[in-house]
Design goal:
There is one protein chain. The protein has about 190 residues and is mainly α. The protein has 2 domains: about 60 residues, Helix Hairpins (Orthogonal Bundle), CATH 1.10.287.110; about 90 residues. About 75% of the residues lie in helices and about 0% in strands. It has 8 helices and no strands. Helix 2 packs antiparallel against helix 3, helix 5 packs across helix 6 and helix 5 crosses helix 7. The chain is globular. The protein starts with a helix and ends with a helix.
């Protein structure tokens, strides 16, 4: 799928049409609204490329996204998403909140990887339990299909860990401004 398909616009779309499509797709795919984080990241990458006239021209000419389009770009997208969520939902220390969210995400990746490996092993144990006298073994075919799907999920896990690690590394250069921290402390004291 190319960036135009991701946003649901034609190659002849105007800059305004691309912007509107980005906003619509971003709203549809946003994980906080029941969407999928991977789709949201794809929408963000499409916008980064098509929303910039120079990058769009290069993309149209070569079919490749200009710029990182890599783990670094995904980590940047993740930080943007997490900072947005923190700013919209809290008046606290946004840097620490994002750090906590990244830690929760990493723990979720570990749990997800374990769960996939457990399901895969269970499926493989069950594969030999049903035999067929003649013809194709539909149970084997079904289990093989499920194992392939789990293998695909497991193959994506290292990238998820790398994106999380890089986002955490990028977060290391952020800190709350001193006046913000003083305001938070005085606000807390006034509320007690």
């Amino acid at each position: 799928m190319n960036h135009y398909d991701t946003l649901g616009v034609g190659r002849d779309a105007t800059a305004d049409e691309i912007k509107q499509a980005f906003r619509r797709r971003s709203s549809e795919c946003h994980p906080d609204k029941g969407g999928d984080a991977e789709q949201q990241a794809a929408v963000n990458r499409a916008w980064e490329t098509l929303g910039d006239p120079e990058r769009r021209a290069e993309y149209d000419a070569t079919g490749a996204s200009a710029g990182p389009g890599s783990v670094q770009a995904e980590a940047r997208d993740a930080l943007l998403h997490l900072f947005r969520a923190s700013i919209e939902n809290s008046d606290g220390d946004h840097v620490e909140e994002v750090r906590s969210m990244l830690a929760q995400h990493a723990a979720g990746l570990v749990r997800g990887q374990s769960e996939c490996e457990r399901k895969r092993a269970r499926l493989l144990r069950r594969r030999g339990k049903v035999r067929v006298r003649a013809g194709e073994n539909l149970v084997h075919a079904l289990i093989d299909e499920q194992v392939r799907a789990l293998d695909q999920q497991l193959a994506k896990m290292p990238r998820g860990f790398e994106v999380n690690r890089m986002a955490l590394e990028m977060l290391g250069s952020y800190e709350m401004a001193e006046e913000s921290l003083a305001g938070l402390i005085s606000g807390w004291k006034a509320g007690t």
